[in-house]
Structures are given as C-alpha cells and as structure tokens.
Amino acid sequence: MLEGVVPFPPEFARRYREKGYWQDRSLAEEFAAGFNRFKERIFLVDQNRQYTYGEIDRLTDNLALNLLELGLRPLDRVVPTLPNCAEFALLYFALQKIGAIPIAALVTHRYAEITQFVKLSGASTCVYPEQQGDFEFGPMVRRVQQENPSLRFCISLPDLRQLIEGKAKSTGPLKTIRIDPTDPCVFQLSGGTTGIPKLIPRTHNDYAYNSKTAAAVCGVTPDSVLLLALPIAHNLPLACPGLQGYLFRGGKVVLCASTRPEEMLSLVEKHRVTHIKVVPALLIRLINDPSIKKFDLSSLKVIQSGGQRMQPEVRVRAHQLIPSCFVQENFGMSEGMLFFVRLDDPQEVILETCGRPICPDDEVRLVDDEGREVGPGEVGELICRGPYTLRGYYGVPEYNARAFTRDGFYCSGDLMRRHPSGNYVVEGRKKDLINRGGEKISAEEIENLILSHPAVQNVACVPVPDPSLGERMCACVVLRKGHSLDLQALVSFLKAREIAKFKLPERLEILDDFPVSTFGKVSKKALADMVMRNADH
C-alpha cells in the first residue's frame, strides 16, 4: 500500500468483502465492464463533441499507453487543474488504467493550493489549461516545478490533446499492470473553507461501491442523462453517482463549463436532461432567473442538491416551476459517508431532512463535546465510519489523531439530529456558531428564518468581532429583484417568529452575491472578511 495511506483494519475489510461491498477489482476493471456492455451508446457530450462508450475506451487506452511512454508509472500522483471538458474525463479514465492517482484539484486553484498538493503528495505530474479567464497557468506551474523536484511532467491542455490523439507504439504495457484495489484511486480534497484542503485517499474498492450504490438510490438507468455544471473533479459530480455512477448504469453525461442559468437550462432542453447536480446557491439562481420560463424542462426528473442544507422554500419553489422534477437533498462528504433522501420518502420527510445513509453498514453516531451519544432528537456532532469512509487523511498522522476516534470514527464537525422518520436533519457545523457573550447562536437557524422573508433571495449569517460580547451577528442578504430591506424591518420580522432576543442580528449587509469557496459553498470566512472591510470604510 502507498505509504501515508491509513488502511482499513483487517476485521472491517474482511466484513466488507464478505457482504459484497468490496469486489476487489480496480476501477479500471469496473469501468471495462461498462465500456464493453454499452459500447455503442453515447456516454459523454462536450459542446459539439460526443463520445460513445467504445470510443472512450479506445481513446483512454491510447492515452494511457502514451502516458506510460512519457514516463508515468502506477501510483504516480497527478494534479489536473482542468475545467469541465471531455479531456478531464479521458485523463481520469486513462490514469485509472495505469493505476496512477489523480488529485481532485480545480481550475480555480492557484499557486498556494497546487504547490501544497504537490508537496504533500509527492506528485510527478501536473496537467493544466494554458489560460482560464485572464490567468495564465504556465508560469505558475513552472514555478511549482522549480520548487518541487518530484514534479517531472508539466502537461498543458494542448499537450494532453496530442497524447490523446497520437497513436501509441504498443498495447502490451497495459496488460502487465497490476493494481491493488486497496490502494487509492483518487485523492479527493477536504471541504473546509479555511486553510489548504487535506488529501482524502479513496480506494478502488470503496469508490466503486460509493458510485454504484449512489446510482441505485438516485434512480439512474440507461435512459438517464446527467448535466454536470459543478466542477467535475468534486466528489459529488465525479462519483455520487456522477460520472462514475452513470458509466456503471449505461447513462449519458453532458458537460457544461458554465453555471450561468441560461446556458445550463438550454442544455437541459437540447439533450433532454433527466438529472442535474446543484448546490443550494446554484439552484436559487436557477429558479430566480427569467430564463427558467424560456426552455422546455419537462425531461427533468431529479435535481440533486448537496454541499449545504437546502431550505424547504427552495425545494417547494423549484417543484412549482419544474413540476416533473424531484428535488433530492443529500448530505455527503468527500471523506465518504453519504446520506440521501429517498425518492419514495413522505413529503414532510423530503422537505425537512437530508436523508439517511446509503449502506446498511454505515455506522453513524451523534455525540456531545465529551464524545457521549446524545438523546433522541437532540443535536450532536456526526461521527461515522463504514465501507466507503476513510480511516485517515493522507500523510498527516498528527491531524488524524484529532480527526478520528480511537475506534476509527471520523469526527465530521457537522451538527445533526435524528428525525423521527429515521432520516437526519443538518443543524449546521460546530464552527458555524456565533458566540454572543457565551450564548451560542446557530447561524443556520437564523438563516432559515430570514430566508422565509419575501424580500430575501439568499442569506448567510456571520460573526463580527465585538469588544464586550466577543461576537455579534451580521446578516448578509441578497435581495430579490425590486425589493428593499433595512435592519429594523428585518428585526421586526424575526421578533414575530418569537425567538430569543440574543439571536437577533445586530447588523445587516445587502450584497449582490456571496463569495464562494472552491467547493461551491458560501465562504463564510471571505464573507466575514468582506463585512469587516466594509465596517472599516
């Protein structure tokens, strides 16, 4: 096993094999079954380009062989910073065929992140577009290479296209590669909004199970068409069920390099898209954009939302505008554990919860600050373990000692309570709290109330420093078009909800939009910094 990876304990690995969760096949072997079974079907669409399953198989064989000829080897770590394009998918499948390990970097990452990924992983290769917007990648990548002797290969997107198209010399080397299914197939990134993300080793065994099971829960069939506008390297678009899950089921994936509502919705109509993946902020933009009435969206069956808790009002409004669709909330983490609302859950459960785990052997506990399980209906921190949840971040044993319990439960930092239905309700994060004179206020609780105000399109509550109380709450609000709101009116609205006075916001910031992290979530750190800068002026 690759040094720095924390293995599953033998007794758990044995159980997961006996129960059939782990098949002891590499992702390359798993993908081969799909490529062969659905050979003539269209799998991938990227603007005017489309590829059948058979074409993807042939092209990625060729690319894998050319990468081996270049000098890549099994277990090499590769940092691709590519947008949503066919080349990313071709590179991902080719790397699986040679047993190399992609790191789920994003095209929005820059020097600080890329150099950290390379240093921590010992990456041999970086793949990048020449330019994205007004940013030139080449100088940055060369700087990273000069500082990191492990980084031997810097491959631009035009170079990658040549490797895809240039005929390989021989097919022999691929047949000799042996991949250990307990090794990592990808390094996902931790989703924190502060600091550099940590590397999450997902093994061939656990990642295949992750995607197959998520595909079943989401109702994916060979007739399903997925639109991917969220960054394709993310865990949700890549594997929950994402690119991988649709491959296993024989579906079609349409790539979109933009999250502009009109572009996304036009692709829904053109390709008769059945499934979309969103984060709540994106869905709020979609349902508030005038173009939603311009296109035929009747093919849509499932809008899958993750990343942050979605408010019931958003789900109800989305269904009103697109009656054919089911807004399926899920709670997931790149570290593994996935909760999904089921398609046949009762309406009140659909509106109130984020679902329940997808595997019978997912172990979930809600605990207090001392690690004791909380009572029924009480809020506690989610700790979890299971057949597709990591046992440790890569190469950081000191951090792992804090992030995992002694018996291997991952301490997520997410606050939840169990719903009477058996599903779970997200109640925020341990750190997403405003400490006002010792009274802890859940930002999410107040956000839920403010979002029901008719003038409010989106909201995020952040702490601002206070010399006497430590912190006070600032409500940052995006207004609906043509509406206005001041602090006095907002406080009056919240007082009518009969909440404790200390929970009322003491400052209001009206913004056009919110800063988001590279993971598509509202970046509360950046938002709090913005509020403080505004105060200084």
Provide structural commentary.
The chain has 537 residues and is an alpha/beta fold. 35% of the residues lie in helices and 23% in strands. Helix 4 (86-98) links the parallel strand 3 and strand 4 (101-102). The mean pLDDT is 93. It is globular and about 75 Å long. Among the domains are: 16-204, Rossmann fold (3-Layer(aba) Sandwich); 357-430, Luciferase, domain 3 (Roll); 433-536, GMP Synthetase, Chain A, domain 3 (2-Layer Sandwich), CATH 3.30.300.30.
Spatial strand order of the main sheet: 2-1-12-11-13-14-15-16-17
Task: Give the helix level as a range of percent.
Answer: 25-40%
Shape: globular
Stated plainly, the CATH topology of the domain at 16-204 is called Rossmann fold
Please identify, by name, the CATH architecture of the domain at 16-204.
Answer: 3-Layer(aba) Sandwich
**Number of beta-strand segments:** 26
Low-pLDDT ranges = none
What is the makeup of the main sheet? Answer: 9 strands, mixed
Mean pLDDT across the residues is 93
What are the key terms here?
537 residues; alpha/beta; Rossmann fold; Luciferase, domain 3; GMP Synthetase, Chain A, domain 3; 9-stranded mixed β-sheet; 4-stranded parallel β-sheet; 35% helix
Topology:
Elements: H1 10-18, H2 27-37, E1 42-46, E2 49-52, H3 53-70, E3 77-80, H4 86-98, E4 101-102, H5 111-121, E5 125-128, E6 131-132, E7 135-136, H6 137-147, E8 153-156, H7 157-165, H8 172-176, E9 184-189, E10 199-203, H9 204-217, E11 225-228, H10 235-239, H11 242-249, E12 252-255, H12 261-271, E13 275-278, H13 280-288, E14 302-305, H14 312-321, E15 326-332, E16 338-340, H15 347-352, E17 356-357, E18 363-367, E19 380-385, H16 397-403, E20 410-418, E21 424-429, E22 433-436, E23 439-442, H17 443-451, E24 456-466, E25 470-479, H18 487-495, E26 507-510, H19 524-536
Parallel strand pairs: 1-12, 3-4, 3-5, 5-8, 11-12, 11-13, 13-14, 14-15, 25-26
Antiparallel strand pairs: 1-2, 6-7, 9-10, 15-16, 16-17, 18-19, 19-20, 20-21, 22-23, 24-25
Helix pairs in contact: 2-3, 2-4, 2-11, 3-4, 5-6, 9-11, 13-14
